[in-house]
Amino acid sequence: MSEKDIENRLIELESRMAFQDDIIAVLNDQVADQQLEIQKLWEANRLMRDHVESLKSSDIRSLDEEVPPPHY
Prior knowledge:
Layout: H1 3-66
C-alpha cells in the first residue's frame, strides 16, 4: 500500500468521523428535547389526574345534591 493510499484512507476516516460526530450531536439534542417534552407531559398528566380527583370528591357530589331526580 502506497503512502498516497494510506493518506487517502486517513482522510476518508477523518471525514466519516467528523460526520458521525455531527450526527451524534444532533441526536443528543433531539434526545434532550424529547426528555423535556416527556417531563412536561408527565407533569400535565399529574395535574389532570389531581384535577379529576378533586372533581370527583367535591364538584360531582355537590352537583348531584343540587339537581332533583328526573321523575320530579
